[in-house]
């Protein structure tokens, strides 16, 4: 019994470390989000000679940063719990970005599309379970 009480502060300490590091990560991602916004501005107004096709990739990068920041916010709002839905949203966005950036092999594109379908079905099942539990 004394051993349990002796180390009872460890989870609390680790939770604090995690919270501090997630806050730092959110700040770093915010800087990248602002940088990506500036890149989108440059592409739209063609200030640096970047091809317009890169606009879509930059927009998807923007949303990936945005979703990770939203995930960290939800973590704190949900009292230190990561909602599964947000990981699935991030995964879908990441695979869409991958399809847009690397679409040379049709078989890979079909497999990526299948992965998106699996994630959408997972979201649907999770929503059904959530509605049935309420």
Automatic annotation (TrEMBL):
The chain crosses the membrane at residues 12-35, 55-74, 86-103, 109-128. It is a multi-pass membrane protein. Its main location: membrane. The keyword Ribosomal protein does not apply. The keyword tRNA-binding does not apply. Pfam families: PsiE. Belongs to the PsiE family. PANTHER family: PROTEIN PSIE. This is Protein PsiE homolog. It comes from Paenibacillus zeirhizosphaerae. The lineage of its organism: Bacteria, Bacillati, Bacillota, Bacilli, Bacillales. The gene is psiE.
């Amino acid at each position: 019994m004394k051993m349990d009480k002796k180390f009872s502060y460890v989870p609390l300490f680790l939770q604090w470390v995690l919270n501090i590091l997630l806050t730092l990560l959110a700040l770093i991602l915010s800087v990248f989000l602002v940088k990506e916004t500036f890149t989108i501005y440059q592409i739209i107004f063609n200030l640096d000679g970047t091809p317009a096709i890169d606009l879509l990739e930059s927009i998807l990068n923007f949303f990936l940063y945005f979703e990770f920041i939203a995930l960290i916010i939800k973590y704190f709002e949900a009292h230190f719990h990561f909602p599964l839905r947000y990981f699935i949203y991030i995964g879908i966005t990441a695979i869409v970005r991958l399809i847009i950036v690397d679409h040379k092999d049709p078989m890979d594109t079909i497999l990526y599309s299948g992965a998106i379908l699996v994630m959408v079905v997972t979201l649907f099942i999770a929503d059904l379970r959530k509605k049935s539990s309420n």
